[in-house]
Amino acid sequence: MTADDSELRELRASVREFMAAKSPEEAVRKLMDSEPRFDPAVWAQAADQLRLPGLAIPEEYGGDGFGPVELGVVLEEMGRALLCAPFFATVVLAAQALLASGDSAACARHLPGIAAGRTTAALAVAEDSGSWDPALVSTRAVPDGDGDGGWKLRGRKSFVIDGTTADLILVVARTVAGPALFAVDREATGLAAEPMETLDATRAMARLTFDAVPATLVGADGAGGRIMAKVLDIASVGLAAEQAGGARRCLEASAEHARVRHQFGRPIGSFQAVKHKCADMLVQVELAEAASREAARLAAEGAAEFPVAAAVAHACCSRAYMFAAMENIQVHGGIGFTWEHPAHLYFRRAKSSQLLFGGPAVYHERLLDRLGI
Amino acid sequence: MDQDMQDFAAEVRRFLDAHVARAPDRTARPWGEGDDSMAYFSSLPPEKEQEFVRRAREWQRIRHENGFGWITGPVEYGGRGLTAVHDLLYDAIEAEYDVADTGVLSVIGLGMIGPTILAHAQPQVRERWLPAMYRGDAIACQLFSEPGAGSDLASVATRAVREGDDWVLNGQKVWTSVAQHSQIGLALTRTNPDAPKHRGITAFLVPMDAPGVEVRPLRQMTGGADFNEVFLTDVRIPDDHRLGEVDGGWTVALTTLMNERATVGSEGAGPVAAALSPDHLSALMRATWTWDDRALRARLAELLVDAMATEHLNARALRKLRAGTAPGPEMSVSKLMYGQNLTCAAHFVSDVLGPRIIADTGKWGTYAWTELLLATPALRILGGTEEIMKNILAERVLGLPKEVRS
Ligand SMILES: Cc1cc2nc3c(=O)[nH]c(=O)nc-3n(C[C@H](O)[C@H](O)[C@H](O)COP(=O)(O)OP(=O)(O)OC[C@H]3O[C@@H](n4cnc5c(N)ncnc54)[C@H](O)[C@@H]3O)c2cc1C
Q1: Per-residue pLDDT tens for A281-328?
Q2: Mean pLDDT score of chain B, rounded to an integer?
Q3: What 3-state DSSP class applies to B323?
Q4: Interatomic CA distance for residues B162 and B237, integer angstroms
Q5: Which of A221, A260, A264, B124 has its CA 20 to 30 A from that of A303?
Q6: Residue B302 DSSP symbol
């Protein structure tokens, strides 16, 4: 299903209104110091009132069947508001991994709960190096020997977004056939989760230890590489939308401040060094929005150019957000460097997002790879 | 695409198929084959230049005879009365064919001056010049810049003084592209030295063969001479060649400048397209054994990210136009990025080539890149410098306070 322009505008307006009410700066600050790092009541409202978790999940699995374009609008708004919620982990990473696995039984088991907002989920790929390359995974999976098709996982995962709170954990682990995807229940015996201290306080991350943890194979044995390639493309675009939203907010904050703050008897925005800084931010933000929205559109169309566009969106939005977040502090001067001002929250989110999937060196090579270079 | 557009596209293809061959895709051409030219500006010897202009006029005439000379223009002046979307569609299809380069007519004359004449000239002047321009007979130039008025365009000093039914113009214009081929020029002149500078300007259409108009070529850093100085000495212009009100020329200038921003940066095809093509650039890296140089690969990726994001921006502007919404700041951003992307590409390529770009070994695809390299500084200046474009973005789009100006 695809929304037309006016439906997209309506969606944006209602999500923005929801964010203004439920994720103002005070709420973000309170949540980033609490455990869990989200408000279950707000999460339930996002599901019941706006049906956000199920927006881009197919109707056969209890969702509303919209696609990456609509999801992008929601993520832009969440990125603007620095929403603390398990949305990215559950809906973008885990749900997309289930869909990419092509395992309809696993989808039927888990997606309805996700769509309804009852189940939160996480995707555990990276280990201590932080790399999302499934070929580098050392966590192992072995058949549990009971003859019931069960597996046992052993190893350690890091940087698992919302890993301490997720009800369902999808894990990439190595079998004799290569990397594969497994589902693990939060209550499973042998699973330990501890929160990690994070650069971006608004995005919770965990370290998970698996000591012979019972797990179910999702998709084919050895298909983990293929599944993750798909997931990373679509997750890059989701992240890009969040980044574009955050960058736009930084630009707006700078422009607002440059209009009202006076020095030397005139608004600082009339000084060309400041004016051009803001214009440079605008250029980056316009490019970022174009790159992430076009990539989402190509994904929705199933276009052959999508993987290239996804890599472009990730690189372009990562750079734009980091640039906007840095210059935003500069335009705000001393205020921007204080703990009280929200500018640093965007700076932290921008840097953390830029490096989440490996950082510039990795995504440059991903782009060249997608182009066959 | 809806039915109307599909019919139009089919008609365009029938026309082009009947008159020209399909072009080889320049961005996908095999390395080492064909022409390796990377010229943005021409640097042809005079006879070749004349031939180039003749071919441009000829192709414009054929377009016009077949109803594609002025797709958005009013029917009464030989236009087709269709939308900007039809125009863009035509351009996109024509780019697949091997047609003569008509930039000498279209970039300034048809793209900027034509719409200004349509909006501001008196009926007999529109009748006299518009069909001639869109038929390829009259080339037009933009007589705006002066030695003392570049970014600060409202400082023009060329004087126009009324004498009976005529005006007499005296002054000097500079950097005037294609003036050497032009039949008319749109000039900004000062008619009221006492009024605030924006309010004392009047615009005139100047026949370039009028007595007292002298065009002197200026050699550019590329070696060619695409732009000129134009001296106006007691040039008599009838009052009916005035555009807009007396002292109201700034409004006329704004029409031209708005169209200028839409024109520059939208040149998709042409030899320089290869400079941003992944296939072409990776072939260059293979040919120079720099294929696995990690630093160069990272720069290549950065360059392609910007080039592709700019394409996405253009695609979005086009989609907005199709949906009937006015595009936002996309065009200005796109113009800025166009200059920057080509600049990055030229420097990337020169670092890949190393010493091979500093002297001509005769090898295909090496020294030819100097043509692009030497053109890039102009792209940051012409049609409004980067600094001026940034002022416009900050003030008009972000609402920042105006610069302090005298
Ligand atoms: C290839 C080419 C073709 C051209 N063709 C035409 C043509 O056909 N017709 C025509 O009329 N003109 C033409 N121009 C002229 C062009 O529009 C001007 O060169 C341009 O507007 C800059 O003016 P200037 O050269 O006088 O530089 P200046 O205005 O003197 O600027 C010099 C430097 O100062 C900076 N600067 C000036 N004012 C400000 C400010 N307020 N804030 C910050 N920085 C500022 C500029 O950005 C620039 O970097 C052409 C130029 C080139 C290079």
Answers
A1: 999 999 999 999 999 999 999 999 999 999 999 999 999 999 999 999
A2: 92
A3: coil
A4: 9
A5: A221
A6: H
Nearest to B89 by CA among B331, B268, B273, B310: B268
Enter the tokens of residue A148.
């019931």
For residue B332, the model assigns a pLDDT of 87
- At B265 the pLDDT is 46
Q: pLDDT at residue B249 above 70?
A: yes
d(CA B219, CA B201): 29
Which residues, 6 or more positions from B266, have their beta carbon under 8 angstroms from its beta carbon? B314, B331, B334
What is the distance between the alpha carbons of residues A178 and B49, in angstroms, rounded to a whole number? 64
Amino acid at A276: H
Distance CA A355, CA A352 (A): 5
| Rounded distance from Cα B260 to ligand 1 centre (Å) | 14
Q: Is B396 an 8 Å CB contact of chain A?
A: no
Distance from first CA to last CA of chain B, Å, rounded? Answer: 51
Q: Could you tell me whether strands B166-177 and B213-218 are parallel, antiparallel, or unpaired per DSSP bridges?
A: unpaired
Give the C-alpha distances (Å, rounded to integers) separating A263 from A256, B129, B163.
15, 53, 51
Atom of ligand 1 nearest to the CA of B108: 8
Q: What is the DSSP string of B214-264?
A: EEEEE--TTSS--EEEEEEEEEEEEGGGEESSTTBHHHHHHHHHHHHHHHT
Token duo for residue A86:
């398990």
Between chain A and chain B, how many beta carbons pairs sit less than 8 Å apart?
121
Residue window 204-263, chain B: list those with CB within 8 Å of chain A: none
Sequential pLDDT tens for chain A (373 residues) = 788 889 999 999 999 999 999 999 999 999 999 999 999 999 999 999 999 999 999 999 999 999 999 999 999 999 999 999 999 999 999 999 999 999 999 999 999 999 999 999 999 999 999 999 999 999 999 999 887 889 999 999 999 999 999 999 999 999 999 999 999 999 999 999 999 999 999 999 999 999 999 999 999 999 999 999 999 999 999 999 999 999 999 999 999 999 999 999 999 999 999 999 999 999 999 999 999 999 999 999 999 999 999 999 999 999 999 999 999 999 999 999 999 999 999 999 999 999 999 999 999 999 999 999 9
Distance B102 CA to ligand 1 centre (A): 24
B398 vs A5, A282, A315: nearest CB: A282
Task: List, as one string, the DSSP characters of A2-28.
Answer: ---HHHHHHHHHHHHHHHHHHS-HHHH
Asked if A251 and A244 count as a contact pair (C-beta separation under 8 A), the reply is no
Flag whether residue B398 sits within 8 Å of chain A, measured between CB atoms. Answer: yes
Closest alpha carbon within chain A to B336: A283
What pLDDT sits at residue A163? 98
- What pLDDT does residue B26 have? 65
Our mutation pick for probing the ligand 1 site, out of B252, B385, B389, B393, counting the most ligand atoms within 8 A of Cβ, is B385
Interchain contact B306–A (C-beta under 8 A): yes
B26 is written with which tokens? 């320049």
Decide: pTM greater than 0.90: yes
Contacts of B402 in chain A (CB under 8 A): 270
Residues of A with CB under 8 A from a CB of B: 5, 251, 255, 258-259, 266-267, 269-270, 272, 274-276, 278-280, 282-283, 286-288, 290-291, 293-295, 308-309, 312, 315-316, 319, 360-361, 363-365, 367-368, 371, 373
